[in-house]
Amino acid sequence: MAYTKQLYIICSFVAIGGFCFGYDTGVISGVLTMEPFIRQMTNGGTFLTPMQTSVITGLLLAGCFVGSLLAAPLCERISRKYTIIVASLVFNIGAAVQVGATGYDMMIAGRFVAGLGVGSLSMAVPLYLSELAPKEIRGRLISLQQLMITIGIMVAFWVGAGTQYLTSDASWRIPLAIQIAPAAVLMFGVIFLPFSPRWLINKGRNEEALAVLARVHANGDKSDAGVIAEYEEIIAQVEHERTVSVSSYVELLKGTVRRRLILGILIQIFQQFTGINSIMYYAPVIFQQAGIQEKASTLIASGVNGCLNVLSTIIPIIYLDRLGRRVVLISGALVMGSAMLLCGIVMGATAKITYDPIKDVKEVDMSGNTAASYFCIVMVYVFVAGFAYSWGPCGWVYPAEIYPLSIRAKGTSITTAANWLMNFIISLFVPVMLTSITWGTYVFFGCCCAIMAACVFLFYPETKGRSLEEMDIVFAGRALAYKDVKNAEAKFAHGYANHKEGSFQDTKEQQA
């Protein structure tokens, strides 16, 4: 099937939701180091405590956790499309409060409200993309969200580098205000985009769904063979789910759906245990630890980091649907783990660790060993590249494609909430880890990456090239997924034949 330019345009536009999250992630790391911001937040103080830093960062993530859970009923009742609009509006309200903040309390309130919007977008956007995308390029299209996240981070880093020379409150208010623009564009632009065809069929609006499938997959040709086949497959799945009453949260705990829920939650938790958001939130501090002492230099190093993140994310857009999820996830975890372990070991062996009694923190000084300093910086870059081509996109792709239609919004909501909850927890502890166990932080995340590689190899089945309606068969195999890799095609062909005859694998008999 030849895919239309309109399909790519629609998916790229909706992925702006990822830009909002990425920009906020990147901008706060620079803002936290700006002297005018510190003075405003501390009523004239000269530094933020690790706990204040954690709360300013973490309140957004707490809002994201709540927002991702609230998005599920919205997606089901008012549609994926309108949920994106509501989430964009909420995000802009929170961003506006941050821009106008006159103190610490107002700032963290704005961060929480903005988090409600970001959390809802992070759940609704990949859900919408997965239901609009054909199975052959679904990984590519959902990866557009991660690409926009990385672009947002990169833009934020360079904006921060540009405004850090200002001595007034404009140095931090301008970067925070810029994020309002993309969210406003998304909010008004989504009005003109189509509804999810799978949501339309689930609501009994079959003709509209057929028109959407024809529009985005075949230039409006409703007689196209691929469009008709996908349309009929979705209808068959919806009718089956209605027959067995698969619609409540309880169904997430039954049969193969329970397995999917566990794997979906774990992949989102694992994504945070790579340590990536710690690198992004606290990049200037990390580069200072690695030996870059001047503030301007650390911000530029962070900007370069953001550019590398974007370029590396292009790789999965091209190759994810060819290589598959398993290979990408395992290789990415090994690359990241190696980089973090090497960074931590070299820093621990060469750095001078001192204690600052005023701030009650340990400080790392690598200025006396230039080679070791540069090595650690390179390892951070290698780590970011490893994440960008693997766990960055796959962390969103995999959970968005594995659930049955009738509970897809609920399942995606829970897995996304798990991501934000773990993100929140880690963001609270990382500033303390960086100033207490210092280089041990990198060793910790390196070990986590090794565990993740093993878990994917053992338990995660391959989902590339399978339609959303075929996931019942994909997850009907053994829990130890690596044993099914060699004969997956033969087993799938047999399972799909039964599926077409109406003998779905994930039925009430399996759920009993």
UniProtKB/TrEMBL annotation:
TM region(s), chain numbering: 7-34, 54-75, 82-101, 107-129, 141-160, 172-195, 261-287, 299-320, 327-351, 371-392, 413-433, 439-460
InterPro entries tied to this protein: MFS_dom, MFS_sugar_transport-like, MFS_Sugar_Transporters, MFS_trans_sf, Sugar/inositol_transpt, Sugar_transporter_CS
Superkingdom to which the source organism belongs: Eukaryota
Localization (cell): Membrane
Cellular component GO terms, alphabetical: membrane
Keyword set, alphabetical order: Membrane, Transmembrane, Transmembrane helix, Transport
UniProt-listed Gene3D superfamilies: MFS general substrate transporter like domains
Membrane topology note: Multi-pass membrane protein
PROSITE patterns the UniProt entry points to: MFS (PS50850), SUGAR_TRANSPORT_2 (PS00217)
Keyword Transport: yes
GO molecular function: carbohydrate:proton symporter activity
PANTHER family in UniProt: PLASTIDIC GLUCOSE TRANSPORTER 4
Broad class of where this protein is predominantly found: membrane
Pfam families given in the database record: Sugar_tr
Protein name: Major facilitator superfamily (MFS) profile domain-containing protein
NCBIfam families referenced in this protein's UniProt entry, alphabetically: SP
Lineage, opening ranks: Eukaryota, Fungi, Fungi incertae sedis, Mucoromycota, Mucoromycotina
Organism: Mucor saturninus
Major facilitator superfamily (MFS) profile domain mapped to chain residues: 10-464
The family this protein is said to belong to: Belongs to the major facilitator superfamily. Sugar transporter (TC 2.A.1.1) family.
